[in-house]
Amino acid sequence: MDKFLARELFAIVYDKKNSGFNNIEVYLEGWIKTNRNNGSIGFIEFNDGTTFKNIQIVYDKTKVKDFDKLSKLATGEAISVIGNFVLTPNAKQPFEIAAKEIKSIGTCPEDYPLQKKRHSFEFLRDIAHIRPRANTFNAVNRVRNALAMAIHTYFQDNGFMWVHTPIITSNDAEGAGETFNVTVGKDASKFFGKPVCLTVSGQLHVETFAMAFRNVYTFGPTFRAEESHTTTHASEFWMVEPEIAFADLNDDMKVIEASLKFCIDYVIKHCPDEMNFFNTMIDKTLLTRLNHVLNSEFKRLDYTDAIKLLEKAVADGYKFENKNIKWGMDLQTEHERYITEHVVKGPVFIINYPKDIKAFYMRLNDDGKTVAACDLLVPQIGELVGGSQREERYDILKEKMDKLGNTKGLEWYLDLRKYGGCPHAGFGIGFDRLLMYVTGMANIRDMQPFPRTPGSIKY
Amino acid sequence: MDKFLARELFAIVYDKKNSGFNNIEVYLEGWIKTNRNNGSIGFIEFNDGTTFKNIQIVYDKTKVKDFDKLSKLATGEAISVIGNFVLTPNAKQPFEIAAKEIKSIGTCPEDYPLQKKRHSFEFLRDIAHIRPRANTFNAVNRVRNALAMAIHTYFQDNGFMWVHTPIITSNDAEGAGETFNVTVGKDASKFFGKPVCLTVSGQLHVETFAMAFRNVYTFGPTFRAEESHTTTHASEFWMVEPEIAFADLNDDMKVIEASLKFCIDYVIKHCPDEMNFFNTMIDKTLLTRLNHVLNSEFKRLDYTDAIKLLEKAVADGYKFENKNIKWGMDLQTEHERYITEHVVKGPVFIINYPKDIKAFYMRLNDDGKTVAACDLLVPQIGELVGGSQREERYDILKEKMDKLGNTKGLEWYLDLRKYGGCPHAGFGIGFDRLLMYVTGMANIRDMQPFPRTPGSIKY
Known about the structure:
Chain A is of the alpha+beta class. Chain A has helices at residues 6-14, 67-70, 121-125, 135-157, 203-213, 249-270, 272-281, 286-294, 303-315, 333-343, 394-404, 411-418, 431-439, and strands at residues 2-3, 25-37, 41-47, 55-60, 78-87, 95-106, 161-162, 168-169, 181-183, 196-198, 215-223, 236-245, 299-302, 348-354, 370-378, 382-389, 424-430. Chain A is elongated, with a radius of gyration of 27 Å.
């Protein structure tokens, strides 16, 4: 008798190679989701972790030895099952397992927190070690895995090299954003000879590799020590940061659009059951919205024109919380959403932001006032991706850095402009936020295996 | 005229679809490795970062306007090239570019540290931001990328889910190993409400996911704050930690052997030029050794039998630095290498180690003295992979943890045995050490984009 995984049984059915498999004997191991019976026949909803869908195990009082004992198997219990794989073309599920023998591998007492009822996400966050077994988090983690592999697949297939930029660093990419300090013992600078912190971005380091390998990307954890208690901020999160040599802002936006569409399409195709679950249980507009993105050409709008549109909206009586629209301001989410939802009605790049509200490494435009930056705005979220062409001109960059006072310690970054420098561009995607967007889930704490936010670290 | 990448041109040649491409005009961008001329014809070794091999650009005084200027283009300079793609079936390189126009994109002054001569690895470590452009590090980073994708490919194809276990943690998996503290401001426990550190292993956290998804793996950075100044220790390194539910030590070893062989085979197939480089320039036994591993069945040897073999070796006069062989000791690298190189002459799992020298979570064997652990030893390295079956019996694990004093804060880990627990097993591979093994390189500082070791953090 062969050992099977649930996903292999489903594959047999969906590959339509099933005729030869009907009534073969199989051996399965997994966990009980529910167990009920009508006195003569019992039904176990069974999941072995390899599929989102459950398998129905049927045990018949006339065919198993210990019906009464089996009827007491608990939700959450680990079991092994020997039974016949039976196609059920007229039933809701495509097949079932007619059990011959069911054994308990690991019991599950009555205080198991995941009893059969709806639990709030808040409650589940408090049992993060049990949470992956709940339906929603089964789906979240499957899509997280698929989305991560979509990232790798897109960039590898397009010749980008994955670079493991360092987590512990003495440089701070943005100059903004609070950082976590890393210490050993009491003296902060003892171990590495200088104070170090957790990286907020791998961009500066990965630019080094773009100057050797042309197309590269980071994909790893980054950190912000901000006391933010919002649904979209975490202290630890994964970022994707591609960097492209011999590229300008236009090239950058082409890669952003293509990679994003690829990832959305990949997840819809690789996780149909999970995406239907989210579309049914979490956000009924989800698939419509994602398909709209897939079929939209991403528009482009100059920051200066965006400001004019927002000024007009205020004049027309549109109710922003911040109505004080003026050139030079940072757009808030309400402004971004107005533009992408009400004006463009789809994804839009805002480009050429005022230099003073953007990072030092962004390339100064000829107007002397704006930089070659782009933020991708999408309906319901606002900003999803931020990118820019990098300042490749040594003198202009050095002057900026000297003014900012961050030249010291970043001489190596300037060297990239001195020795065979070239126009280059890149962008950053917050992976956990992208996962929120793709699943329709509303809280970043529900995206991460063990979320880290201020004041909370149980695991 | 089409914009091409070097890898596309090589693919044209190797796919043998080349006849239609001969003499087509192409546009390339990249960097000069060397530039020489004989007065009438110039030759540029050109690399655009997309291949390990260089492309030869030929510029002929009679065909380009500015021969003298071109002859002064410097090593390291970024250029664009318009020229004809010409097949050269009788030459060393399969094609060359007959230049029509070459433009400088970014100059490179004479103090460029990568002039054409052999540089020591020590020197290159000190210019980590330029180092990726050196031949050896071009190869190292290409193989690093391929090996990372080999890991993902093997585990994804075998139904394992990638889990992003947290970096910041309040738990310390091994109980051993110094950790880095993470702080904000002066009060260590202010931000998260308790002291936290950088993870030394994702294993305990990922076991949680094995209990929901059966087959899972971590692949991410881990940290050790040890003052080790060896060639194999880094403060920050990537680990792969698969975890398998419904599995024992035998299942574990099967996955270790299969995944390792897959990864070696993948790298040899995906990076033939790079691997030939390492085999020629770094370690002339490399490919022989790796192919031997591919064709070996990994042997298994009980720790107790290994001790007997070592005792016999000492009795026979074999010169170990530590000759004090006795049951219960931790094997040192010299002992491990003796067994794998002189006794087994190939990869070997040492199994069933004394419980007192192994981690608390390893499953106690029936003898009450040993645990179901395995270390994979390979020639020239010693230990490459460590794994174990996990203790799934609640009472035995709790007693161990109570004795060790680490129960508090790890109640959630015990819960995995209380609620539907099952036999499970897993292992850990130090990714950077695996890369050393696969490339034949001798220092972990040369494996990482920006290595972190005690006393050293320039970038």
